[in-house]
Design a protein that fits this description.
8 helices; 404 residues; 21% helix; OB fold (Dihydrolipoamide Acetyltransferase, E2P)
């Protein structure tokens, strides 16, 4: 990528550019006199006037002000708050959903080419409607107590009266119309069994959110198994994600009765619930998770499964206690598993590794680490679990090369 050392761009400059391609993170790349610019709300191929919003030594940032030559994939954003001065939650609302998935496929391919030095072919799969899919969201009130979401790269709250991305069961319109305290974080969760929880915390400081309405523990029904999920535990936000991802993991894992499986970063046990059924009473599942709240949920979820062992702590530090595994399933946070955890997984010599990832860059990096330990990428699927945003979820299968 070109350096900006010789660039004369200044914040506030208006320039005309042609948009080149999508970049990881929801921006689009343009260049001006050798300077690289990450542009919001653009589409590849468009000729636009953009306003520079920040400058740096390696790249600049800008917003689209006017589109002179529009892409055939540009649409009117369905949400009235989705614009350059509006809510920063959705960065792709100006693109038709089908082409959003094409762009996300391009991002995955580019990340694997650049980081893992390999070519992958993958099509991002549609799994839900492009609106009303989110079951968990964090909103914020301004100092006047009006509900909203932050602007992009800002702590300015954009007041909203509803959110088209949230499921109707969250009743965000109702919350927005209610009397709220100023400068509060509003965490709203809705389960697929009809429950809703609202938790509040000040926007400043480290105070944990306290529940103001609804149950402390929600119940989620996934493929016939009801799981307890505390308000503070991680849960996939797309209403269809738990089932879609579980099926993908099972498809790749091809589990057999009696096998020993690791469920790393296992949360409340979404994947363990399906894995323990597949391996049967003769099999065993080790679930490792860093959150004490999540493992407490998991302990309740598998109280009747003596062949499920639950451990709380750092995955990389706890893995040395494990001596063998037939299959490893991992769903790490956005920054990925990392070199140490991958090395410990490879030491166990599982027949396959199934990796669920919410960031393609971290997945590509860990793919390179796995390759260093003779595990190659066999299959990859990608799912559009976050329509209208740049985020992508992947499930990848790695198998060990036979050593003669």
């Amino acid at each position: 990528m070109a350096s900006n050392k010789s660039s004369t761009l200044k914040t506030g400059d208006l320039i005309e550019v042609t948009i080149e391609k999508v970049a990881h993170g929801g921006h689009f790349i343009a260049r001006h006199e050798g300077a690289v610019i990450f542009v919001r709300h653009a589409i590849p191929g468009e000729r636009c006037t953009i306003e520079v919003t920040s400058t740096g030594s390696s790249f600049n940032r800008a917003d689209v002000i006017e589109v002179h030559e529009k892409s055939e994939h540009r649409v009117d954003a369905p949400c009235k708050f989705a614009h350059r001065s509006g809510c920063g939650g959705c960065d792709f609302q100006h693109i038709n959903p089908e082409f959003q998935r094409v762009l996300k496929s391009d991002v995955i391919k580019e990340q694997f080419s650049r980081i893992a030095k390999m070519q992958v072919e993958v099509q991002v799969e549609e799994v839900s409607e492009s609106t009303h899919w989110r079951t968990r969201a964090i909103a914020t009130t301004n100092r006047h107590g009006k509900l909203g979401f932050y602007k992009s790269r800002s702590h300015t709250v954009v007041q909203v009266d509803d959110c088209l991305i949230c499921v109707e069961g969250m009743k965000l319109k109702e919350i927005a119309a209610s009397h709220l305290k100023g400068d509060m974080r509003i965490e709203v969760s809705a389960s697929n069994t009809g429950e809703r929880t609202i938790a509040l915390a000040p926007t400043r400081g480290e105070e944990k959110a306290r529940i103001s309405e609804g149950p402390v523990v929600l119940h989620e029904n996934v493929l016939g198994k009801v799981l307890e999920v505390s308000q503070a535990s991680f849960w996939q936000s797309n209403e269809n994600a738990p089932e879609v991802l579980t099926k993908a993991v099972l498809e790749f894992a091809q589990l057999k009765s009696g096998e020993h499986v690791l469920d790393l970063y296992g949360g409340v046990g979404l994947f363990t619930a399906a894995i323990v059924e597949a391996v049967g009473p003769a099999g065993h599942v080790d679930l490792i998770e860093g959150s004490k709240i999540a493992t407490a949920d998991a302990a309740r979820n598998f109280v009747n499964n003596p062949n499920v062992t639950i451990a709380t702590g750092d995955v990389a530090k706890l893995l040395p206690r494990i001596t063998a595994a037939d299959v490893v399933v991992l769903d790490p946070p956005r920054d990925g598993a990392g070199k140490d955890a991958i090395a410990h997984i490879a030491r166990l010599a599982p027949r396959s590794v199934v990796y669920v990832a919410c960031d393609p860059a971290a997945l590509a990096r860990d793919t390179a680490y796995l390759a260093d330990h003779s595990y190659s990428l066999s299959e990859i699927r990608a799912f559009d679990l976050f329509p209208m945003t740049h985020h992508i979820e992947c499930v990848a299968l790695y198998t060990r090369a036979e050593v003669s």
